[in-house]
Design brief:
The protein has 13 helices and two strands. The chain has 253 residues and is mainly α. A two-stranded antiparallel sheet has the order 1-2. A hairpin with a 4-residue loop joins strand 1 and strand 2. The termini are far apart. 37% of the residues are buried.
């Protein structure tokens, strides 16, 4: 006999009762969202979708899908400082953060976003996390617009990812956590940023903007209702700066 809340039940009765109970199974997407973060997965999906669009566009132009940068869609959306400044193509400072050059570039950035973004989304919640991400992406765009070569096309989510690391470092410092591992990781990645073909300016700009966003969160930690509006204001200021301040290298030409 098996003890019950009132009296005892025979094993056959318990087995028969359990057979009529439906087992609740978690839905796959919902489970993934809880584990990795809804915004993080949405950002990854958007980046992958943009890569597919540019790859298809490259194929339609007679190029390999791996050379997705050789497509009209990529050319129209990537950050090109001279185009932003002279042609008023303002959208480039935003759309470039969702483009990647080749599948390896995409895979590396999406892996980093999954690892670090999901952790920060768990800590901050989706709204503040998304605000930090966009602020960091715009920080990289500002650095490229001000100091980058106006003739060079730049794309990638690296600036936003560096910004997430910068924000995470500020938050860990404020909570007095050990950040030596994070600093080592940042030092390695900054060193890699000096390699040819990698935008050091975009990485550093995103890192500084993310650290600034983290500082805003720390300063307003007792007034949480103001954190997202404050980050939105920072992002708007960065966007205006990237669109209105002439590229310094353009002024020298």
């Amino acid at each position: 006999m098996i003890p019950a809340s009132v009296g005892f039940q025979c094993p056959e009765c318990v087995k028969a009762g359990n057979a009529g109970v439906r087992t609740v199974r978690s839905f796959g997407l919902r489970t993934a969202g809880r584990r990795w973060g809804v915004v993080t997965l949405a950002l990854i999906a958007l980046n992958v979708a943009m890569f597919v669009v540019t790859a298809v566009s490259a194929v339609s132009a007679g190029n390999s899908p791996a050379d997705n940068q050789r497509s009209s869609v990529f050319v129209d959306l990537a950050q090109w400082p001279a185009g932003v400044h002279y042609l008023d193509e303002w959208w480039r400072v935003l759309t470039a953060a969702f483009l990647h050059i080749g599948p390896v570039h995409l895979a590396m950035n999406m892996l980093a976003l999954l690892l670090f973004g999901s952790e920060l989304e768990r800590q901050l919640g989706w709204a503040r996390y998304l605000a930090v991400y966009l602020t960091s992406a715009l920080g990289g765009a500002v650095a490229i617009q001000l100091l980058g070569d106006p003739r060079v096309v730049v794309a990638g989510a690296s600036a936003a990812i560096y910004g997430l690391l910068g924000a995470l470092g500020v938050l860990m410092t404020a909570s007095r956590q050990d950040i030596r591992g994070l600093l080592t990781l940042l030092a390695i990645n900054v060193f890699i940023s000096f390699l040819p073909g990698i935008s050091l300016l975009g990485h550093l700009g995103g890192l500084l903007a993310g650290a600034l966003a983290g500082a805003v969160l720390v300063l307003l930690r007792r007034r949480t209702q103001l954190q997202v509006p404050a980050l939105a204001l920072v992002a708007i200021v960065l966007l205006v700066v990237s669109l209105t301040v002439p590229t310094l290298t353009v002024l020298d030409l």
